[in-house]
Amino acid sequence: MFQKDPNSTAKASKTAKHISTPNPHFCFYGKGINLDKEPLIYIDGEYYPKSQAKISVFDHGLLYGDGVFEGIRAYKGVVFKLKEHIDRLYNSAKAIMLDIPLTKEEMINAVLETLRKNSMRDAYIRLIVTRGVGDLGLDPRKCRKPTVIIIADRITLYSGETREKGIKAMIVWVRRNPVDTASHEIKSLNYLNSILGKIEANIAGFDEAICLDKNGYVSEGVGENLFIVKNGKLITPPSSTGLLVGITREVIMKLAEKLGYMVVERNVTPADLFTADEAFFTGTAAEITPITEINKRIIGVGKPGPVTRNLMDAFEKILGDPAEGIPIYA
Ligand SMILES: Cc1ncc(COP(=O)(O)O)c(C=O)c1O
Q: Fewest CB atoms within 10 Å of the CB: 27, 114, 212, 216?
C-alpha cells in the first residue's frame, strides 16, 4: 500500500490512477485544470481530482438528504477518535437501514489512504455514505448501491482572535427536532433544522445559534454540543433533548473528570444559560469554543473562564497522541 509521510523530503506522486477510468456518473473533463495540484477525493473506491469528483443528480443523498456522515479531524499525523467516528457512522446507517458496502476496517483504511494520497497530517475529513442512485421517487429500495465519499480538507469555524475572546450566541426560535422525528441523534444528511437555526443567528448578527428542545430546555448548537459551568461544576444537556451525542463532548466529560471537576448531564434552562459562570461549545469542527455572550447577556465576566481554559489546554495536549486515534503513516 502507498504510504508516504509528507514530512519526508522525497516528492509525493500526485498522479491519480483513475484518470483514464472516469467516474461512471460523471461525463465532463474541464479544460486547463491542473490535476496534479488538486486534492483527491475518494468516491466508491476511486480517487478523483476535486474538479472531477462528481456524483449523480439522481443520488438520494442529494434528492432527499438520504444518507449519513461524519466530520473527523486529523492532528499531527493521527486521526483523532477515528474508531469512535466509524462506530457512530455505522450506527447512524443502521438506524436508517442503510447497508454500508465496506467493513469498518475497510472504511478506516479508506480514510487513512485518502489522507496519504493527499499527503496530509492535519485535516478535516468529511465521510459521507448516501443511499445511492435511484429514481425520482423516494423509495430507498430503488437505490441499488450506496455512494461512499471521503473528502480530506481543512476547516476553521472561528478565527483564533474570535475564539480567544469567546463568541456571541443566540437562542433561536428553531426547536431541535424531537427524538421521535429525524433528530440529530442520528447523524444523517438532514441538517435543515440546524441550517435554519444558523440563518437566524446570522441575520441577527450573532456568531452561533443555540437550539432549545420542544419542551424549552437547551439542546445544543447547530453543529456543536454545549456545556455550562456553575460553581465549578460542568453541566451539559442529555440526549433526550434530541442532540447528537458528540465525540468531543465525551472526550471533554472524561478530561473534566480527570481534572477533578464534577460533570452532570441534566436539563438546562435558558435561565441556567444566562446565569452560568462559563459556557462553551464542543465539536469536531468547533473543538472547544468559549461562549461569552448569549442573547446579549454577558456570561460570567465576559471572557473565557478558568475551567474552559483548563479544558482547552488539556484537550490541546491529547491531540496528535496515537493513543487517542489512529496514526496515518504508521
Ligand atoms: C448537531 C451536532 N451536534 C454536535 C456535534 C458535535 O459532535 P462531535 O463532537 O462528534 O463532532 C455535531 C458535529 O458533528 C453536530 O453536527
A: 27
Residue 246 alpha carbon to ligand 1 centre in Å? 5
Is pLDDT above 50 for 186?
Answer: yes
Mind spelling out the 3-state secondary structure of the chain?
A: CCCCCCCCCCCCCCCCHHHHCCCCCCCCCCCCCCHHHCCEEEECCEEEEHHHCCCCCCEHHHHHCCEEEEEEEEECCEEECHHHHHHHHHHHHHHCCCCCCCCHHHHHHHHHHHHHHCCCCCEEEEEEEECCECCCCCCHHHCCCCEEEEEEECCCCCCHHHHHHCEEEEECCCCCCCCCCCCCCCCECCCHHHHHHHHHHHHCCCCEEEEECCCCCEEEECCCEEEEEECCEEEECCHHHCCCCCHHHHHHHHHHHHCCCCEEECCCCHHHHHCCCEEEEEECCCEEEEEEEECCEECCCCCCCHHHHHHHHHHHHHCCCHHHEEECCC
> Would you name the residues annotated as active-site residues?
187
Task: Give this prediction's pTM.
Answer: 0.90
User: 284, 289, 315, 319: which to mutate for ligand 1, most atoms within 8 A of CB?
Assistant: 284
Rounded to 5 degrees, φ, ψ at 201 are: -65, -40
Atom of ligand 1 nearest to the CA of 247: 10
Mean pLDDT within 110-131:
98
Q: How many angstroms separate the alpha carbon of residue 184 from the centre of ligand 1?
A: 9
To the nearest whole number, what is the mean pLDDT of the chain?
91
Residue owning the nearest CA to atom 1 of ligand 1: 223
Q: For 291-330, write each residue's pLDDT tens digit.
A: 999 999 999 999 999 999 999 999 999 999 999 999 999 8
